[in-house]
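FAQ

Q: What does a record look like?
A: Structure on top, sequence underneath. For example:
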């Protein structure tokens, strides 16, 4: 059976020995003078090695597919432009 590895990201972001006694509080100033332990423990979704896999290829491709599909639906309809004052 394959071994399953998982990371507790929220737990990493709340370790008292890394982030301090106020690890549960939003305090952006903690990044001023951040040490290597803080930088190593921070694992945001959407940045660095933890970037969203859809951001570079799949996401933009799907946006293109959706826009093309929407354009095709619009082109298939019989549209009539009505300006204000036209009854």
């Amino acid at each position: 059976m394959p071994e399953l590895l998982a990371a507790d990201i929220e737990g990493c972001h709340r370790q008292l020995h890394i982030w301090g006694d106020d690890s549960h509080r939003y305090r952006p100033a903690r990044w001023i003078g951040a040490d290597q332990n803080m930088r190593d423990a921070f694992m945001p979704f959407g940045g660095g090695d933890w970037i969203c896999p859809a951001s570079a290829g799949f996401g933009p491709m799907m946006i293109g597919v959706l826009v093309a599909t929407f354009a095709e639906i619009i082109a298939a309809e019989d549209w009539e432009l009505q300006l204000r004052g036209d009854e």
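Q: Is there anything notable about this one?
A: Residues 51 and 60 are 15 Å apart (CA to CA).
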